[in-house]
Amino acid sequence: MAGATVEEIKRETRVYRNxxxxxxxxxxxxxxxxxxxxxxALALTLALLVATIKGSLVACYFMHLISERKLIYTVLLIxxxxxxxxxxxxxxxxxxxxxx
Amino acid sequence: MExxxxxxxxxxxxxxxxxxxxxxxxxxxxMLFGALFSALxxxxxxxxxxxxxxxxxxxxxxxxxxxxxIASSVTxxxxxxxxxxxxxxxxxxxLWATFACGLxxxxxxxxxxxxxxxxxxxxxxxxxxATYFLLTGLHGLHVxxxxxxxxxxxxxxxxxxxxxxxxxxxxxxxxxxxxxxxDLVWIFLFPTLYLL
Lengths: 100, 196
What we know:
The complex is a heterodimer. By secondary structure, chain A is mainly α. The mean pLDDT of chain A is 88. Chain A is built from 3 helices and no strands. Chain A has 2 domains: 1-68; 69-100. The radius of gyration of chain A is 19 Å and the shape is flat. Chain B has a single domain (17-43, 58-195), classed as Cytochrome c oxidase, subunit III, four-helix bundle (Four Helix Bundle (Hemerythrin (Met), subunit A)). Helix content of chain B is 79%, strand content 0%. Chain B is built from 7 helices and no strands. Chain B starts with 16 loop residues before the first helix and ends with a helix. The relative contact order of chain B is 0.15. The mean pLDDT of chain B is 94. At the A-B interface, α1, α2 and α3 of A face α1, α3 and α7 of B.
């Protein structure tokens, strides 16, 4: 990011506008999915898939994770590990206790 | 004593200090919202009946709010790009637009909450509304926090541009990273609470 030329920065701003258009389109898709007559499992999968795509666009382009320093990736990798434990440990414990 | 590495990158991390600091803070935020999402999943899977969000909540208003927050993410990143191009006037315009989007988001949220309260619906109504108010309320507090920071950088904090423009640019980048995270949380909250 540091030391980028004027042309490079202007190119980046065009990317930001395109990402915005993509995010707007994906939001419309998310709402459209909710009106489709599909099973809950399919609706959940599709909604989370679209949300993940949108989240990736924000993280990669707006938060510049597409070209970030190694240390940031390390921090995020450790966070992701703890996040998954936090998410699935209580669920696993609950499913175990109900015998499901 | 001068604060080190506010502009220059530290040789060992390759980052200026505030950037590493904000990423560590965002990591802690992931855990905060992660714990609440985990609680939501647990409550939902354990409940005999869980209402369909779209039947209980105002989807059109939340959709507008999603567009507002996405737009604010673009304006803040455009403000940062303008500062890198040394266009302070343009950057201020984009920062005002970001602030306005944050305000718009909160006004819409207040309308939504007002409608619920007027019908006697509160966090004590049931688990669905408890998680709805908790998650959207905490997210709303984060939006307000971001707006306070932007107001500071548009007001008294803007003086720094005249004396240390690169440091000011970095400050906008770091609070922009926070703002994008707030947008990111909403991207997952919106389908989870309102549409499923």
